[in-house]
Amino acid sequence: MAAAQQLSHVYPLGSRLNDSGRLEVGGCDTLELAREFGTPAFIVAEDDIRARARAFSEAFSARTDDFEVVFASKAFPCTAVYRLLFEEGIGCDVASGGELALALAGGVDPARIHFHGNAKRREELAFALEAGVGDIVVDNMRDLILLEDLVPEGRRQKIFLRIAPGVSPETHPAISTGGPNTKFGFDLSHAPAAIERARASDAVDVGGLHFHIGSQIMDIAPFRTALEALTGLGDFPAYNLGGGLGVAYRAHDDPPSIEDYVAAKVDAVNEIVGPGHRVIDEPGRALVANSCVTLYEVQSVKRNVDTYVAVDGGMSDNLRPMLYDARYDAQIADRFGGGTRCHVVGKHCESGDILVRDADLDDPRAGDIIVMPATGAYGHAMANTYNGALRPPVVFVKDGDARVVVRRETHEDLMARDV
Fold first, then answer.
1. Which CATH number covers residue 53?
2. Domain check: are 116 and 217 in the same one?
3. 301 and 261 in one domain?
4. How would residue 408 be classed by pLDDT, with cut points 50, 70 and 90?
5. From its phi and psi, is residue 328 left (phi > 0), alpha (psi between -120 and 50) or beta?
6. What Cα–Cα distance (Å) separates residue 248 from each residue in 25, 67, 354?
7. Exactly one of 28, 292, 342, 349 is catalytic; which is it?
8. According to the model, what pLDDT value does residue 2 have?
9. Is residue 349 among the annotated active site residues?
10. What is the pTM of this model?
11. Residues 123, 176: one domain?
12. Each residue's pLDDT tens digit, 217-267
């Protein structure tokens, strides 16, 4: 079997095992990357993100002339990622003043930025207005009240009204956001009053409706159900259907294709609300998750009832297994294969700091480099300094070259805010 065929689809596009059996990502040997940049480290294949961005744009353009693809940037809020995706024609949504600052620093045209949030501070809305964002997604009545006070006289800010359609897809409850008892948006009983007030306001223009029912969705049928729930609210120029397309975290995962996902959404808009409406979509993890692998170094192997392979990272660089019981694959970077059933665990003072349960590794030992794929979504975003951990660097790789786009944190950084 050719080396490239030994890798599952969870690894970045173009990854391969070289003739020495060592994993290469973006044409770079992962053991050499670990030596040069240290561990833990987020290794991002630039071409993978570009390919997925183009796949979304091409899938939409094949079905409609009036669309916008927007990066749900909470998945990977890094200026280099904003810049790369904007170069590919992808706008972004931001959910805080901090993400807005990052997007602007990444060179995103403010007109292509959509400002989200269920608890927007007055200062954040003022920042968004000053920056000239394309639209503000109004989550609640207080958003409208604040905008009516903040929007300068004679100016009107474009908004979308976020609606909770009462639809709960099959996903983890913590990332299901469109059900009947969610903290996000106007429910269907309160939405008509919000729409009426917004349409009567001199401060805002209603550009359309927005909904987002959740993340890591493997069944695309609920998107149609959610849109159907909005039909009683009237006709609008545009519909933002959020994101949510699931990705493969483990070799056996089989998410819908980008093409099938896009077709389901565009066809639903055309068939339910009719042709001639702008379709906006906000993929997040589907653009970035599989572009990245995290490299760790094994520090110890301990055999109790179970075998524990302890690495130099953990819940400080990937909280998802602890928050959502998320499951990942792992391999030794230069010895792909199995033979030792074990738990890959982190270095933190928590028994729940387990990155991969029941991993199957080839005789793991101290000094090995562990590679954990599909970490591009929410790894860097949720990285933290628990136990004084230094947040990892983000390293872009392409055509055999590697460059740091976010440096590793230092001890001085940990104390930079002390007074």
1. 3.20.20.10
2. yes
3. no
4. very high
5. beta
6. 17, 26, 20
7. 349
8. 37
9. yes
10. 0.94
11. yes
12. 898 888 999 999 999 999 999 999 999 999 999 999 999 999 999 999 999
